[in-house]
Amino acid sequence: MTATTPARANQRRDLISKQHRHLGSLLARVSAVDAVGVEERAASLAKRSIKRESKLWALDMAIRMMDLTTLEGKDTPGKVRALAGKARRPDPTDPSIPHVAALCVYPNMIPTAVEALRGSGVKVAAVATYFPSGQAPLEIKLADVRSAVEAGADEIDMVIDRGAFLAGDYASVYDEIVAVAETCGDAHLKVILETGELETYDNVRRASVLAMAAGADFIKTSTGKIQPAATLPVTLVMLEAIRDFHAQTGRVVGMKSAGGIRTAKEAIGYLTTLYETLGPRWMTPDLYRFGASSLLNDVLMQIRKERTGRYSGGDYFTLD
């Protein structure tokens, strides 16, 4: 992912200012979601069959799009360095396997990740804004973001205040995202909606539009700490919101599906949905990510199976 340029930052700031003046009308134009239609389409796309060469391409792209993640209270510098090694070389025996997009860690692990990934092309992402609850005063959240950026994070994954959103206080959620986006500077901002707590598809769509209008570079499904996390119907709702927002504003926003995606088959279903909804322009790590802690191993096993005709076994690759 390329760094935010001053010109791009100024363009985003001008767009945010314009949309802030029309926030009420913008949200009023958010259409209701046909829940039955979304679920039927998602189920149909998940079953789409693809040929072997296309499948290998999709598996390779899934690795390139992964944010390899460790967000546990027991994380240690040693664990982060080990995961950074896997992020750089997912399969040490096969140099044709690409590196992942990013390594996502807690803020105190950023210096370790930065050092371990130096020169690799793998970005360092950090969760912030009082992850995962988002329940803290704004000044604490902004200090969290500022500290993460100063420590070297390329990307910030923030959480919205779901309580404020569900109470209908959209303006405060919007203003908070704007403040975080300003504090991020050149770091890219992924806004986590925590869709498992938003209750309805209509709320997911409204929150998606709100986050994009406030300056999100990506919108993201989940923290991975709440169930349900990412689901294909929710992802489809968010992708359609991105499509419509782009049509209305010309602004390109990325998407991250995170939490509960564990198999290569599931990942291919998400990529199929991405392609059918947003087209080939979004088929890049710059515009789509998987938040993954266990997905990588299954993708590696499926690649080996497609190439050799046999499975390697669950213990062939390191467990994360």
Tell me the layout of helices and strands.
Blueprint: H1 6-21, H2 23-28, H3 35-46, H4 52-64, E1 66-69, H5 77-88, E2 102-105, H6 110-117, E3 123-127, H7 138-150, E4 155-159, H8 162-166, H9 170-184, E5 188-192, H10 201-213, E6 218-220, H11 232-249, E7 254-258, H12 264-278, E8 288-292, H13 295-308
Parallel strand pairs: 1-2, 1-8, 2-3, 3-4, 4-5, 5-6, 6-7, 7-8
Explain this structure to me?
This protein is of the alpha/beta class and 320 residues long. Helix content is 50%, strand content 11%. The chain has an 8-stranded parallel barrel, surrounded by 8 helices. Helix 4 packs across helix 12 and helix 4 packs antiparallel against helix 13.
Quick take:
This protein is an alpha/beta fold.
